[in-house]
């Protein structure tokens, strides 16, 4: 689970920050639905879920590139992207849910007096209604979206802003958990501890053991074990 001795680092943690897609919540089914509906609309063959899932953490643009085999400078790219986002917005909480075991993690953090929050590159126009629909808005100490700060991940600014919002804690007192390389880079750049969510949307071309994280968790409840120094 851990790449290094984590006990001394874990004892300092007062805030746990989560990436959203592929870490806190399983949003892939709704994003896959939005892509396939967009493909259907333009008479393109739909794609199997297992092919779409690894691209979800890379955003809607990655889904358009995957589904339509287009580059972002193609004149049809942005209109297709906007169609996908419109469909996604209308179906944002169709099947999305917390990953199994994640609710227990959140409850245990709250019981221990450890604040938790969200740092995502997802724009706030999608993040905010989704978190509200899931009933998590009032529980989260902070919600930092891709457009909350000037810079987005892997820049350290979003995580540093989240640490400040969640009680003014130093980065050394914060843990950031994500399933993409930019998540870990953002945490490292900010000076927080980092964990890779191996249960997230990693693809065959991802090599998380090379990202320099403090540890790796195969399911959400291992986050609690890491915090206990196990």
Give a description of the structure.
The protein is an alpha/beta fold and 230 residues long. The chain has 2 domains: 7-26 and 97-227, Rossmann fold, CATH 3.40.50; 28-90, Orthogonal Bundle (DNA polymerase, domain 1). Helix content is 40%, strand content 13%. The chain is built from 10 helices and 8 strands. The chain has helices at 7-10, 28-41, 49-52, 60-68, 77-90, 102-112, 124-133, 157-165, 181-190, 222-227; strands at 15-18, 25-26, 97-98, 115-119, 142-144, 174-178, 193-197, 215-217. A 6-stranded parallel sheet has the order 5-4-1-6-7-8, sandwiched between helices. Helix 2 packs across helix 4, helix 2 packs across helix 5 (77-90) and helix 4 (60-68) crosses helix 5. The radius of gyration is 17 Å and the shape is globular. The chain starts with 6 loop residues before the first helix and ends with a helix. The mean pLDDT is 95.
| Proportion of residues in helical segments | 25-40%
What's the shape? globular
CATH architecture of the largest domain: 3-Layer(aba) Sandwich
Radius of gyration: 17 Å
Q: CATH superfamily membership of the largest domain, which one?
A: HAD superfamily/HAD-like
């Amino acid at each position: 689970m851990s790449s290094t001795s984590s006990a001394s680092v874990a004892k300092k943690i007062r805030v746990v920050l989560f990436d959203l897609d592929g870490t806190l919540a399983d949003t892939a089914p709704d994003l896959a639905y939005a892509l396939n509906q967009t493909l259907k609309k333009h008479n393109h063959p739909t794609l199997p879920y297992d092919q779409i899932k690894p691209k979800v953490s890379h955003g809607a643009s990655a889904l358009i590139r995957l589904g339509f085999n287009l580059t972002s400078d193609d004149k049809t790219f942005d209109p297709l992207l906007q169609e996908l986002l419109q469909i996604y917005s209308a179906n944002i909480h169709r099947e999305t849910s917390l990953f199994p075991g994640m609710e227990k993690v959140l409850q245990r953090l709250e019981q221990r007096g450890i604040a938790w929050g969200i740092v995502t590159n997802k724009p706030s126009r999608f993040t905010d209604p989704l978190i509200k629909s899931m009933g998590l808005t009032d529980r989260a100490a902070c919600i930092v979206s891709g457009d909350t700060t000037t810079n987005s991940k892997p820049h350290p600014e979003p995580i540093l802003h989240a640490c400040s919002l969640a009680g003014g804690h130093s980065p050394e007192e914060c843990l950031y958990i994500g399933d993409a390389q930019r998540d870990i880079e953002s945490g490292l750049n900010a000076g927080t501890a980092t964990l890779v969510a191996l249960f997230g949307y990693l693809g065959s071309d991802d090599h998380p053991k090379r990202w320099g994280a403090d540890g790796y968790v195969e399911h959400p409840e291992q986050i609690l074990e890491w915090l206990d120094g196990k």
